[in-house]
């Protein structure tokens, strides 16, 4: 068992009112722990390119080995803080109360698996990615989600949401109970040099992955999948293909025609006034079609991705059709 007397608490809100509310809880523990504070609104009061970038800044900026991160929408208690500290003291390399809304780890974890992936622009999918990386690392993680502690309202990232789903699809192939890692995309930023000295005491305290625990959709990546590398090599070739997308009220059709073995990732979102929420997303393989219904009667935004690049973005009216020809470099399995 480790003894944690000090930690960094990272306030992720750009709104001082959130910080004041959360600070009122944190101060109740100042007699028990030495607490280093990191304030996002001081570091960067504007919009971060990605949630991952914000977390990485906090990791590099702080001096404390152990860290707790708090989303502005989280309402936590002192018991929640001590729950995370208890798990990090007793064999877990990662612990959360509200998924990526209220969670903690040590810099020792980041020394071994790398920083968060900043390619997940705006937010979403970086938590799925991190959970898979924890699974592959092989040490115990506790990934909970207390729904009563988190405000379920729209994210301010708005228009940025969901554009990086294709990066997750390119980085991992999820098939049944197996996840294959694409080695060409599995590279991660290192912690800053001043924090790179390994701590064997912390590392040797961690339990194995058989102790992985969770109660939410993200935690399934820790508990329900076997993660390994995909040994298949890929090469880049120029591909010609045609994509047609049509809509008749709530009925949608997607058709992909081409000569090479390509796969596109397509997402449909509602308009930004309605929260830019995801309505439908799926991969489509060449010379295949999709026919489906979306229960939404307003304008729908289309986003199309190949590999980790968005190649098309447009608006679909209630009775509309888009027909697009592409000639692009695409990664194809050898």
* Helix and strand pattern: EHEHHEHEEHHEHEEHEHEEEEEEEEE
| CATH fold label of the largest domain | Spore Coat Polysaccharide Biosynthesis Protein SpsA, Chain A
Which structural class do the helices and strands define?
alpha/beta
Oligomer: single chain
- Quickly give the CATH architecture of the largest domain: Alpha-Beta Complex
Radius of gyration of CA atoms, rounded to a whole number = 22 Å
Low-confidence spans: pLDDT under 50, at least 5 residues?
none
List the strand order in the largest sheet: 2-1-3-5-4-6-9
The termini sit apart by 48 Å
- Sum up the overall morphology in one term: globular
Structure annotation, total helices: 9
CATH top level label of the largest domain: Alpha Beta
The pLDDT mean sits at 91
Summed up, the domain count is 2
Number of strands: 18
Percent of residues in β-strands: 35-45%
- Residue share in helices? 10-25%
Main sheet summary: 7 strands, mixed
Which tags fit this structure?
2 domains, seven-stranded mixed sheet, alpha/beta, 22% helix, Spore Coat Polysaccharide Biosynthesis Protein SpsA, Chain A, 334 residues, 36% strand, four-stranded antiparallel sheet, Immunoglobulin-like, globular
